[in-house]
Write a structure and sequence with these properties.
This protein has about 200 residues and is an all-alpha fold. It folds into 2 domains: about 15-60, Homeodomain-like (Arc Repressor Mutant, subunit A, Orthogonal Bundle), CATH 1.10.10.60; about 60-199, Tetracycline Repressor, domain 2, CATH 1.10.357. The protein contains 9 helices and no strands. The chain is elongated, with a radius of gyration of 18 Å. The two termini are about 35 Å apart. About 35% of the residues are buried.
Length: about 200
């Protein structure tokens, strides 16, 4: 399946919800990330949020829609976190800004010890005709576009190829830091990409 472009997904603002909707989304987000999407039922989400299953369906229509909102909100928060780190780190050249992406990922990983929520979600819903796939593909495309832009800033001869390679290293490091049991994988990847771009 061809990855969705970021233009197909609104990563600019979080959804407007009722107070009960926010509680449900908060509860679902914690449960989905910590325990897995398929392992968590709507009854448990409603209980954690202090609402009813009827309220959940009134707010979101289905569990699938709630999963999609969970992923959308997580993407928005990660992207805001990353943009803030890049914007507040000083000018820097493209190489330094690539290093900062990996540094931001290390910091984010401190409170996200189950790794990438989008990789985890794909492991559960991939291959199905699921609305979550649009969000998963769009988030990965957003990161790929970021790395290609930073490669252009770094002045490399073929920024698209370099950006794709940086993205592959980034994704591999995120998996190795969790499933691979190598907690220093992101830091080692950061050092490696700086060396690659430096040459």
């Amino acid at each position: 399946m061809t990855p969705t472009t970021t233009a197909d997904v609104d990563f600019e603002s979080e959804p407007v919800l009722t107070p009960a909707g926010h509680r449900l989304l908060d509860a679902a987000s914690t449960l989905f990330y910590d325990r897995g999407i398929r392992a968590v039922g709507v009854d448990r989400i409603a209980e954690e949020a202090g609402t009813t299953k009827k309220t959940l369906y009134a707010c979101f229509g289905s569990k699938d829609a709630l999963v999609a909102l969970y992923l959308r909100r997580r993407a928005i928060r990660w992207q805001e976190f990353l943009r803030d780190r890049l914007d507040n780190s000083g000018e820097g050249n493209g190489v330094e800004r690539v290093r900062q992406v990996f540094a931001a990922a290390e910091k984010w990983h401190e409170s996200s010890d189950r790794g990438c929520a989008f990789v985890n979600a794909y492991a559960e819903v991939g291959g199905a005709n699921d609305p979550a796939l649009t969000l998963i593909h769009a988030e990965k495309r957003w990161m790929n576009e970021l790395f290609r832009r930073l490669a252009r800033e770094a002045g490399v001869a073929d920024p698209d190829t370099a950006g794709n390679l940086l993205h592959l290293i980034y994704e591999g490091a995120m998996v190795q830091a969790t499933a691979g049991g190598e907690p220093d994988a992101i830091g080692r990847a950061r050092a490696a990409v700086v060396d690659i771009l430096g040459h």
